[in-house]
């Protein structure tokens, strides 16, 4: 049983880090998205990152 808890915790942390990496170019940045993923679960945070990220020309980084 302890192995299941460790594996579940590792999976949760990995998903939080993945969502933070996906949301690194958002307004919150990677750290804000990571904290949000820990608080609200990675799935809910991922939905917000996808829905609230702007895809227009203003979101492109300046060269």
Distance between the termini: 52 Å
Low-confidence regions = none
Number of helices, counting only DSSP H or I runs of 4 residues or more: 3
Largest sheet, in brief, is: none
Number of strand elements: 0
Spatial shape: elongated
**Helix-strand pattern:** HHH
Q: Structural class of the secondary elements? A: mainly alpha
Strand content: under 5%
Helix content: 55-70%
On the 0 to 100 scale, the average pLDDT is 87
Overall tally of structural domains: 1
Radius of gyration: 14 Å
Could you describe the 3D structure shown?
The protein has 63 residues and is mostly helical. The protein has one domain (2-46). It contains three helices and no strands. α1 runs parallel beside α3 (42-52) and α2 (29-40) crosses α3 (42-52). The longest helix is centred in the first third of the chain and has 21 residues, at 2-22. The radius of gyration is 14 Å and the shape is elongated. It starts with a helix and ends in an 11-residue tail after the last helix.
Question: How would the blueprint of this fold be written?
Answer:
Blueprint (H helix, E strand, L loop, with lengths): L1 H21 L6 H12 L1 H11 L11
Helix pairs in contact: 1-2, 1-3, 2-3
Summarize the structure.
With 63 residues, the protein is mainly α. It is 70% helix and 0% strand. The protein starts with a helix and ends in an 11-residue tail after the last helix.
What key attributes describe this structure?
63 residues; 3 helices; 70% helix; mainly alpha
